[in-house]
Design a protein that fits this description.
The structure holds two protein chains of two kinds. Chain A is of the alpha/beta class. Chain A has one domain. The chains are: A alpha/beta, B alpha/beta. The interface between A and B is large, with 39 and 36 residues.
Amino acid sequence: MIYQQMAIPPRSEHLWRYTPWPRIHPTVPTEVPIADEVIFSLEGGGALEEVPSTMSSVDDIARAFLQAAGGSSNRLLINDESEPIHINARASGHVAVGHLELEIKGSAVVFIHISGEPEWVGVHITGKIHPNSHLSFGFINELDSNTKFLRCEDWMIERDGELEHATLSVGGFRCKSDIRSTLNGTGASIRQSVTVNADGARHEDEHVEIHHLHGHTNSDLVMNSACAGNSHFIGTGLLTIAEGANKSDASQVFRNLLLSEKARAEAIPELEVLADDVSAAHGAASAPVDKNQLHYLMSRGLSPEESQAMIVNGFLLNAFSNLTNKYLIEEMRTRLTVHLECELKR
Amino acid sequence: MTDEAQDVIGDYRYGFHDPENSTIRFDQGLSEQVVRDISELKNEPQWMTDIRVKAYRHFVERVMPEWGNCDLLNMIDFESITYFLRSSNKTEKSWDDVPDDIKNTFNRLGIPEAEQKWLGGVTAQYESEAVYHSIREDLEEQGVIFLDMDSGLKQFPEIIKKYFGTVIPYSDNKFSALNTAVWSGGSFLYIPKGISVEMPVQAYFRINAKNMGQFERTLIIADEGSSVHYVEGCTAPSYSTDSLHSAVVELIAMEGAKIRYSTVQNWSSNVYNLVTKRAVAHKNATIEWVDGNIGSKLTMKYPSVLLKGEGAHAEVISVAYAGEGQHQDTGAKVHHLASNTTSNIISKSISKKGGRSSYRGLLQVTPKSSGCRSKIVCDALILDENSRSDTYPTMEIGNSTADLEHEASVSKVSSDQLFYLMSRGFTEEAAMGLIVNGFFEPFTRELPMEYALELNKLLELEMEGSIG
């Protein structure tokens, strides 16, 4: 279905409950503005392959909108790459849209850093992990604090393929992410972490879907958010285990740390299990900063602000604990620590 | 009962039905005139008729929920349902005066025995209205009011007018609008200040006729410092066509009061059970929902608590058993609207023979509510590969001092546990039954002894033939 024929999704769907489509659309829902291109470039030089944008039938309104809006369209095929690949995504103008297609054979580590000061930016990433292949993927959102950001990702992980997926979101004013992964072969697995540090009036809505279509597939999702100021974080997860996908193992953990009186957080980890011989679990927790931890650090000479920043740092770093690739962990940790230090100095 | 009917109901022990001897039966279908006729027949005050009519108009305008099991919901044919059926001309106070055919039904369900042994009061509702009602004299002398809702409206119209629809307005959802439009029967219970009702009071709801809609309305008010335990049981015979049970239950616990509301729902597998239950807890009050869902075709029920006063507490323990062709969409909602309020939710579900159980919950802490604590635990067992279990929890946290935990797991019966029990001489079926009873134990230990035993028996019946 094309965007113009689609109805605005009702708020009874969790996906659109807290950030309804009209709130994340760049103008009014009936319009499809002419979009500038998001410029994808490889760090250290080199260009990504430009491909013509394709129109396929999609059910989701956000994906259909990004398709209709056009923008840039690039592809990157990777055949075993030992060194990490850094892709810079630069956006500017009123409305900017970019599409990126990744295809992985063998092993690779890929980072996407998105930055810029557009009023609105939309990115659609699709990825295919071939059988027995492995991708460690980091997405770092460092957009301007006035930018609205829509991000859609679709991952297909084939037999014995593995995806390590990490998100660090510290930029943008109103952000909505919809990341969907399909474990499409026996032995496929995904380890995913989402880390959000929200301040001011930031609104961040992270939706993660993981679909186990085959048996002996594993998934592990950790989502940690720290919310200060008037910020609002929404974490929704949908984990499905299809009929017959026995011996699947899935877990989701959502943790929220609320740092101010007006900060808000929502956690909705959903499970749909249609197979009987599986292990599926989810947990969610929300709490303020532990006063004992604060007291401990302050008694060792740190100011209250430094103590809190250290606790927040430790809490958010914990989201990366399910990752294994050293480049991925190091990059995400460094970016987070630098961000928190800058914030402390402000 | 014919062999065919027996095949349909399987092991469902309350599947018998008696000949229908109604004194008044409305034609099938719903219209504003039907709503007005129900009100006129009951000789209700004008304000109640007006509320009914407003609710009916809202029901007509309101669309079906777009969440949950929409396929099953959209199969409900509101025009094929009978909205009012009177089986007895009055509510009897003596068991002997109840018409024989109705008495036989309740005798088979064991109601008179239960009343003699361990109840403070009992209401038995057959089709649309209560047919028998009694309360122990000592409770009556203390000022406890326990009536069927129709009698409550006649005898205490001011109290009903003050509280009716204040917890669940007709505009809350499509089915609360339907219930408000055509409600009939249910319980009205008022506990005066400081009175503690030691023995549970019970209501028993029975649908006997085909294509029947039962829309009871229950209002329980526990005044300051009082406490009460209300127990309800529900059964219906199996027919090839569907029945609808759409109740509204409103609980109000004043300062320091405690209400425990226990349900063992064992409707037959052709009943839509779409119930709205909500409680308001004022300062330091406690609300406990103990909710067992074994029967029905589709149950959508999410007992809710509005923690409005500081220090209020909510406890929800629910179990659901989804067998062949059943969808148990149950859960709990707790709104922390005041500071230092606490809640605890335990949900257990079992899916078997293609059944589907869903936990759907909401936990909300508003920005002005500080120091709130809550814990939610959802566990699900799936007993075969055709069954399904879903969890849809929602946590909305608007205050940074809230301390909340949610955990859920879905698994099958552990082969280690089965092996352990079988190595000690249990058959596989008996071992499975023991494990399932143990799984539901947090629920059964909260029920009065007689109900707990009954539930265990029901579960054993349901578990028969579940191995292999």
